[in-house]
Amino acid sequence: MQISGSTRWFLRGAMALALAFLYLPLIVVAIYAFNKTVVQVWPPPGLSLRWFSKALHNTGVRDALWTSVKAGLAATAIALVLGTMASMAVARYKFFGRETVSFLVILPIALPGIVTGMALNATFTQTLHIDLTLLTVIIGHATFCIVVVYNNVIARLRRTSGSFEEASADLGAHTWQTFRFVLFPQLRSALVAGALLAFALSFDEIVVTTFTAGPGTPTLPIWIFNNLFRPNQAPVVNVVAAVLVLTSAIPIYVAQRLSGDTVNATAAP
């Protein structure tokens, strides 16, 4: 497609404007992480690395980080199992209400987080009468992490011919052998991408966590929110936020590269 020079420059300007709109606030937070003083003024009066040392030795930050990692890993594990099974059922079998099932699996990620959080809180505390702990946080995160895994796996399954599995069955392989030696190698990158996205989504979640976390289980986003408006903690919060942006970008980048892998979607005749 040929475009004129003026159109090309217009598109470049629009792209630059969109990127600035998205990332300028993040750049401001990153600069404030190096602020020499406690007071946040623009431009910063000077730059310093001392807040990084304070964040590293902050017990609250370390505990919240470990809580977020545990919740993210556990929620991702649950999402991998349930999301993969759901995607295989929808993609490989025809049954009444299949499209409805697919819609219901995807729906939780479209619901407002506050609605999901209220529903989970009421279920845990009023219906099941259980205390809010790390387990309730994990369950809450898994409800939307499943969607990410489901979308990645079902997209890969739809691009992969079912004739591979039929040929495996014709050769005498049972279900688990077919999954291990035929289907899993084709789904591997989609599973890894889904897991990375699910972990990143869980690690950054705050709304559902607010309703499902008990007093002793603050995740890193909850810690940031609780300390955001404390003047003495503001520089440390900026450091944590800047590091969180960088660490969140890594799984997103890897997942994007894996999701772009080409798959041989047709079997040889």
Number of helices: 11
Number of domains: 1
What is CATH's topology name?
MetI-like fold
The SS-based structural class is mainly alpha
Radius of gyration: 23 Å
What would you say this structure looks like, in words?
The chain has helices at 5-32, 50-56, 59-92, 98-110, 113-127, 134-158, 163-170, 175-204, 207-212, 220-227, 234-259. It has 269 residues and is mostly helical. It contains eleven helices and no strands.
Kindly summarize this structure in a few lines.
The chain is mainly alpha-helical. The protein contains 11 helices and no strands.
Q: How would you summarize the topology of this molecule?
A:
Blueprint: H1 5-32, H2 50-56, H3 59-92, H4 98-110, H5 113-127, H6 134-158, H7 163-170, H8 175-204, H9 207-212, H10 220-227, H11 234-259
Helix pairs in contact: 1-11, 2-11, 3-6, 3-8, 3-10, 4-6, 6-8, 7-8, 8-11
